[in-house]
Amino acid sequence: MNVSLFLPLVNWGMGTAIIIVFALVCIVLTLVVINMVKSDKKKNSDEEPKN
């Protein structure tokens, strides 16, 4: 009975790896969106004086 109390219920190594990958994906997607917004503003500001 005592042995069953010490059995791990969660694989912490795999869980932390998944969380790290998820965090990296979120950071990359955020940076991509920020770059798209910044480049879109530059294009719009360049096009407006030409018209």
UniProtKB/TrEMBL annotation:
<protein>
    <recommendedName>
        <fullName>Oxaloacetate decarboxylase</fullName>
    </recommendedName>
</protein>
<keyword id="KW-0472">Membrane</keyword>
<keyword id="KW-1133">Transmembrane helix</keyword>
<feature type="transmembrane region" description="Helical">
    <location>
        <begin position="12"/>
        <end position="34"/>
    </location>
</feature>
<keyword id="KW-0812">Transmembrane</keyword>
